[in-house]
Each structure stands twice: as C-alpha cells, then as structure tokens.
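Following up on my earlier message about copper (II) ion. Here are the inputs again, as you asked, copied directly from the submission form:
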Amino acid sequence: MTRREFLFYSGFAAPLFAKRDNDPSAIPLGSNQLAKFVDQLSTPPIAKTAGYRAHPHDASKKISYYRLRMQEVTHKVHRDLPPTRFWGFESSSPGPTIEARSGEPLLVEWQSDLPHKHFLPIDHSLHGAGPGVPDVRNVIHLHGGRVPPESDGYPERWFPPGGASLNFYPNIQEATMLWYHDHAMSITRLNIFAGLVGLYVIRDRFEDALQLPKGEFELPIILCDRSFLPDGQLSYPVSGDPHHPWVPEFFGEVILVNGTLFPYVELQPRQYRLRVLNASNSRFYYLSLSNGEPLRQIGSDQGLLPKPVELKTLTLAPAERADLIVDFGGHHGQKVVLNNDTLAVMQFRIGNKVHSSAGIMPSSLRSVPKIPEQEAVKTRLLTLTGPPDDDDPTVMGFPMLLNNAFWSNPVTENPTLDTVEIWSLINLTADSHPIHLHLVRFQILDRRPFDMFQYFNNRELRYTSPAVPPDANESGWKDTVRADPGMVTRIIIRFEGFAGRYVWHCHVLEHEDNEMMRPYDVVKPGP
Ligand code: C2O
Ligand code: CU
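Thanks, got it. Here's what our run produced:
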C-alpha cells in the first residue's frame, strides 16, 4: 500500500467504506476472485476522418475533420463477467485513438448521444452541479494540447445530450502522446470513470528518424483502476451522506488495461514501444516487470527525453504518460508480468520467432534545452491545502484548495503571453497531488522539504534540507507534476501559444471536482 492509500484507508474516509451493504451482490469483486490472463489485450481502434472542412482561420485550406459521438456502450471486461456498461466514443471505451502530425491541424466535432440520466452518483452540493443543471453534461479537453482557449474544453462550456462542440486542434507541438477526456464541471470524475477517455498521438519527422518500434510493435497501455460488482457493472462509492455523496478519492479493486482486466498479449522476442497512460481517478502506479528487467523510458508527458532512462520501477501519477521501450529479445517462450507494486496488471507472452528486425535503441533522443531561471519574470507561491484537521469527521467533504481560493473566486494567476514564470507549489496536505496546467508544457526545477508547522503558524517558508532535482525520467517536458506532501515543488513555464482563459488543477479527479481547480488567464502583453 502506498503512503497516500495508507492515509486514505486509515484516515477520515475509512468509516464510510466500512458501512457497506451486507448484500454480496453490492460488494465489488476483489482481484483474487477473477482468473488472470484469460483475455487478450485489445487496443483502441484508430479514429477515421469524416472528410475535410475549411481551416477555421484560413478558409482556403482544407483540414481533416473527425466526428466522435459519446455513446453508451457495453463490452466484456473479463471472460467470467457479464458485459459492462460504459460511456465511450463511437462504439468503444477507451475511445478511438486520434493520429495527428505535428504542424497539421485538425478538427474534431465532439457530440453527445448519451442518455439524459447519469448512472453514477452525482453530488449536487458541489459547485456547478446544483439545481437547473442537467445531470448529464460533457465537454472534452485535449490533455497536453497547445490549443486555443475556445477549443480547450473549459469545464463550464459543457453541453447536454444532443449537443456538440467543434474543436480546432492546431498540433503546433512536438511528437508525444496526449489524451482526450471529459472535463465537465464537478462531474469529471464520474464521466471519466464511466469511460470517456481516448488517446491522441502526435508524430513528427524528428521522431520518425529515430526508427522506434511502430505498427504492431507499438502498444498503447491505458491504465484505469475500477471496481466491478458480481453482475459485471461498475461500482463507484458514495460517502454515506445522501446530501453529499462525494468521496475524497477512489481506489479500484482491479485495473483495466485498454478496457480489459488482467489481459495477456502475445509478442515476438524483440523490442516493443509501450505508451502508457495513467487514466485513473486517484491511483498512482508503481510499475515493474516480473523478470526483474528494467523498463527503459524514452519519453514523458510532452515528448522525448534527452536520453533513455532505465527504471526498476516506474511511478506514474494520474494523467502522466510514459513512453517505454521494452526489450523482449532473448526471452523466447517466456511469460513476463507487468506488476503494479505486487499486483499483476497484465502478461506478455513471448513467442519463439522474430518476424522482422528487432530494432536498436538510440542512445540519445531529443535535446530538452533548460529554461534559464533568470528568464522568469515572476515567481508565484501557490499553496495546496486540505481540511483543517483530517481526523475531524465534521470536515468530511471539505474541499482541498489551490492557493486558498475556490473555483468561483476571481482569477489570481494571470501570466503574460510569451513570458516565463516559476510556480512554487507548497503542499500542506498529507497527499501527493498531480498538478496539471492546460495549454503549456513546463520543466520541473526541484522539490524541497520545508517545515509545515512554521508555515501554518507564521506563513514562513523554512526549508529543512536541500532541494532535490527531478528524477531522471522527469527531466523532459511535462504537463503534470507530482507535488509531494511537505515539499515545495518548483516548475518553470513559458506561457506560449495563445492568450485567454484556461485552468490549472489537481488531476486526482475527486479533488478537481471539488474545488481543487482554478481558472487562469494568459494575458496579451500591454502596448
Ligand atoms: Cu487531463 Cu484539465 O485535464
Ligand atoms: Cu489533489
């Protein structure tokens, strides 16, 4: 059990879960109740264009146009379970993968053909979910995309079933794997839990030239932990307070890999490129291979690392991505398990023959020029705070906040377009929070432990030991950063691309839905 899970299970949330129904059909299946490695891994289909449309800013140009409809879908997640209801795109959850090229813009029309009733427990006391608001509402955000504000999927720009939104994705960024997901105000955790996620891969010439494994040798791995009832349906917990069903975090009993539980995949004894996404609500993953071989990470959230990084264990916070090369050469006929901590996630079955060239590992990848700290025109000290006292049951449901402000408070973060800022994230909670900024990519400067009591009592930032540089696999471009408890995490950001209203937030979806999200403005420089 990780530190955050320990705090969660032993802390203020525990009594609520203890008070579950005695009815066995209402108790989620544990991971040892399901046979492992009996279903084959599936990969999401590749999205097909629905034709061409005029470029929104240059009508003389035609660009690819996609139409993706959100729909209720059912599929079997496991051989021994009845089909599960999900919400997906077209007929799949996760949705079809959009393949894009850097420099080639495209349009996606997101439509909702979802039912008018939600099948998961909405908390109407949360901001934005009150009376007069339809239960089912959606807006799609391209996570990690450098996208104009009107196409970014602002949480309040949701539309109801029957509605649609045409979004322009300029793809003015380097090769990497982004993902799209629902971002509707205060029900994102439920909409994503229901299955509204998909991949968006950007490729470019630089990456092509590296000749990394591709086609059937490049595997997307989308990880979502979930709980299932014996009837095969998704189970999301409630707090026990009917007026405030929101729970502070969600940890599922089992892990879906591209929509299947404990899948296996048959591979050739050669190199594979695994593109891993943590699409879970709250869970952090600690991934490793059962044969003790390292994972080689070549890219993170926003693209390739300067050079490959060997990892015994890969830590992946919600919304983070890892681009991995795994070499199964020399493992003819073996079975290797991908584990999360000590629990199995999936199995690789390695065959005896290599049918094509096995691939080489480039020793250097893409340079990541450091943004000099002196370029920063501003340093912002931003706190992450929780309820005043975790053990006091009266504060149940009390939100965690960014910089002590609620969603509805006026904008306080207003960087100027094309300037550099340092954001110091002062984490005063007992949790690690994955902090994500829309629009931008950034670099992690360091993390530094500080005296929390000094801060609480006198607002004084007193460091207790030297700053720790980011991990080797965090030294590339990022869009989501772990802000660890008791640490000041510093990131350096150039606000490039577009001016306008965006958001920054914690990517633990339960936190994000309950006030741990703030609007921010990128402002045009004055005359
Ligand atoms: Cu992946 Cu604002 O989100
Ligand atoms: Cu959080």
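One observation from looking it over: The mean pLDDT is 93. Hope that helps, and feel free to reply on this thread.
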